[in-house]
User: Fold this.
Amino acid sequence: MNRYLQVFIEVFSSIIYKYKFEVKSIDDVTILLSKKDFQLEFVMWRETTDIFYNIIISKTKIEKFSISNFIISNMNEQDRNIGVTIDSNDTPFQRNIRALKYFSNLFSRSFSGMLEGDKKWLEDYKNSPYFEEPRIIDR
Assistant:
């Protein structure tokens, strides 16, 4: 069971409801926000949370973009204002939950087009210093 799943659903509840995402736990550290033609993939590692944008090409293939750094580059103090004090003794779980809250705030504020399925934001990403070539992955 994914120990992040319940907290993830709570943190992203307004986004899940507003944009009608399906939530899928893939393994102990990976959660997807899924729609018919794309997914936002969150992977909670020991020291960080990575975000991938997956375009569904077919039933067996996705085009996977690593967008964590691009997303973080758009973050501001308002996104980080979650009413929690950072403590050097925080566990990786606590740090990742805090990161998920930051990301939820940022997505709510800045990336409504992406959440609706509009892919125009990809042009900004491709022109950013954070762009990485996508990979084609078997599902």
The chain has a mean pLDDT of 93. The first strand starts at residue 22 and ends at 25. Helices lie at 5-11, 13-19, 68-73, 77-80, 92-110, 112-116, 121-126. Residues 5-138 form one domain.
